[in-house]
Amino acid sequence: MGAVKIKDNIYWVGVFDPELEIFDIVIPTEHGTTYNSYLVIGEKKKALIEANKKNFTEEYIKTIEEVCPVSEIDYIILNHNEPDHSGALPAIVERNPNIEVIYSKTAKSFVDNIINKEYNGRAVTDGDSIDLGGKTLTFYHTPFLHWPDTMFTYLIEDHILFPCDFLGAHYCDYNLFNDKLENKEEAKAAFRFYYSMIMRPYKEHILKAFKKIEGIQIDMVCPSHGPVLREDIDYYLNFYKEQADRYYLNNPYTQITIVYGTAYGNTKMLADKIKEGIEETSVKVKMFDAATDNMNDIIDEIEISHGLLIGSPTLNAKAAKPIFTLFANLVVLNVANRKAGAFGSYGWSGEGIKMTEDVLKTMRMKLPLPAFKVKMTPSEEELEKAKEWGREFALKVLEGN
Ligand SMILES: Cc1cc2nc3c(=O)[nH]c(=O)nc-3n(C[C@H](O)[C@H](O)[C@H](O)COP(=O)(O)O)c2cc1C
Question: Which domain of life is it from (predicted)?
Answer without folding.
Answer: Bacteria
